[in-house]
Amino acid sequence: MTLFDQIVVKIIQQQEDIIGPIAVEQAEHVKELKIDWSHHQVEVSGNAPAALDKLVEQYKILFGQIAVETCKEAASNLLSQLPAEEQPKSLR
Amino acid sequence: MSLTKNKLQLFVTLVFIGFVGWWISFQHVLSKQGLSVQWFEGVYGLLALTGSIIGFITARKWGGYKTILGRALLFFSFGLLAQEAGQLILNYYIYVSKIQIPYPSLGDIAYFGSTLSYLTGAYFLTKAVGVRFSLKAVKYRVIALLVPVVLIAASYWIFLHNHQYDWHKPVTVFLDTAYPVGDAGYISLAIVAFLLSRKMLGGIMKLGLLILIAALILQYIADFTFLYQSNRGTYMAGNYDDLFYLISYFVTTSAIIKFYTTYKHLKMRAAPVAEESDQS
Questions:
Q1: Within 10 A of A39 (CB to CB), how many other CB atoms are there?
Q2: Contact between chains at A25 and B197 (C-beta distance less than 8 A)
Q3: Which of residues 200-219 of B touch A (CB under 8 A)?
Q4: Predicted TM-score (pTM) above 0.80
Q5: Which of A1, A44, B40, B212 has the maximum number of C-beta atoms within 10 A of its C-beta?
Q6: What is the ipTM of this complex?
Q7: How far is the C-alpha of B138 from the C-alpha of B131, rounded, in Å?
């Protein structure tokens, strides 16, 4: 899995801890994400930072800015490994 | 979703209005403690029972005990169920056994269980609304510390200052202290949850979470009034304290229904972000 794939997995896991299976269903609305959650596998296609922004937006629809903070927290360790220009805007 | 479209909320609202009408109808003869009051006391807790059943179903949909929101909803449902159990037990003592309510009694297992359930539910509520993000700021840490300290101190002053403990009855001593402290505990968590999340909490979950916080505040008003009147021997069945409990059950049930309808809405929803992006 790429770093982006891993970030997506971390974010979905964190949201799943809060709201359960709905977290996965919300992520499935982002068409750039190919999700096999039974194996916790995710593949990001196309513009990965933009796809991550869309994923964060999905959770923001539910909880507002708190969801964004939760996503930042989930991704923080992996995000630091990305160059600044590749980091999704919503997670900066 | 409007009230008329949400049949569950409409049903609960009509039941609530019916109970309020019933409560009003016997206020002018309350001192007689007649049959109407007795039936009302035995029946209005059904609203709490209804709320708890909807709550268990809703909690399961949100992941049950495996998730933070599921746990919060589960404990609120247990709280409602325990309230109904406590009411039925006390009514049994008063109207069936026709004895002075013993203290402590089986009813206290239910009522204290309710307090513990609301306390635990409130704790998971603070987690669900992301209180920890605000705790990074010193100002909010001070608030999170001050609110419980002030409320527990106030509860102590009102209920336990100069209180004569019967040290030969340790369970009684425990309950005398644990009721007001437990109540102060869950109301503190509710206030902290509100104050620390109000700037960041948003989205379609916001309303349900805010109604749950409001429900805790109303439950506290009812519990506080009951404790206050019991301490001073002024409690009367069917008086406004029962109205407070009725309102609290209604608001808690409404919050739970909000989570139920939000879940249904999310399940039916199309993919807005992806589609919006495609269109733009």
A1: 7
A2: no
A3: 200-206
A4: yes
A5: B212
A6: 0.94
A7: 13
